Amino acid sequence: MVELKTAAEIERMRVTGQFVGRTLAELRELAVVGVNLLDLEQHVRARIRERGAVSCYWDYSPSFGRGPFRNTVCLSVNDAVLHGLPFDYRLRDGDLLSMDLAVSIDGWVADAAVSVVVGTADPEDTRLVTATEDALAAAIEVAQPGGRLGDISAAIAAVARRNGYPVNTEFGGHGLGRTMHEDPHVANDGRPGRGMRLFSGLTIAIEPWFARTTDRIVVDPDGWTIRSADGSRTAHSEHTIAITDTGPEILTLAA
């Protein structure tokens, strides 16, 4: 069931979103050559504790994972793109790191992700990251009241194809608000003018992710970390947005 949010509820989600945005901005600065992924995890734990927030990942046990997830941030390196478990690994020059964070504050959730290249960037990695960011911007632009869910999905896929990247539709965006995953599912490919109508008050996480040369994925033995099936590099960008009478509003910008 899709739950539309009131203006007051969206304001409460904005508070959470700003915390998520600020924390991801901090992680961008901390993600340098030599930093251990476990140090990034500990930084997020400390921020959550200081704010009195609740991690949406800790003890998360969905049907597709090998739960419970016992971390507060997803850290996915190189060919890993989603649900990466933080582990004892020091970032190396040229690594491509995707960081995904979802928390709840006072019962309201926000979710966002960023990808960064650590140290010296391969131009193809930069292009891949930029494509996910461009796809996110394009999808947000068409998330207008009166539009259709397929408009968002089609906008993402159009950017992917323009850049020569295949699109996987197994994992994508989602509704959220009181919990991390609510209806509707927001696929990363679709047809414009099709699907659920977009109403003011709808809050969704839009999250394009691409691999360089495949649309197929594999899952690590840990039951969580999702990788490109051919080992090609991956990237992931995400924002939580609210659809309002005047258009889309990004809730996960760093304040």
Automatic annotation (TrEMBL):
Residues 11-245 form the Peptidase M24 domain. Binds 2 divalent metal cations per subunit. Has a high-affinity and a low affinity metal-binding site. The true nature of the physiological cofactor is under debate. The enzyme is active with cobalt, zinc, manganese or divalent iron ions. Most likely, methionine aminopeptidases function as mononuclear Fe(2+)-metalloproteases under physiological conditions, and the catalytically relevant metal-binding site has been assigned to the histidine-containing high-affinity site. The keyword Metal-binding applies. It catalyses: Release of N-terminal amino acids, preferentially methionine, from peptides and arylamides. SUPFAM superfamilies: Creatinase/aminopeptidase (SSF55920). NCBIfam families: met_pdase_I. This is Methionine aminopeptidase. It comes from Nocardia vermiculata. The gene is map.
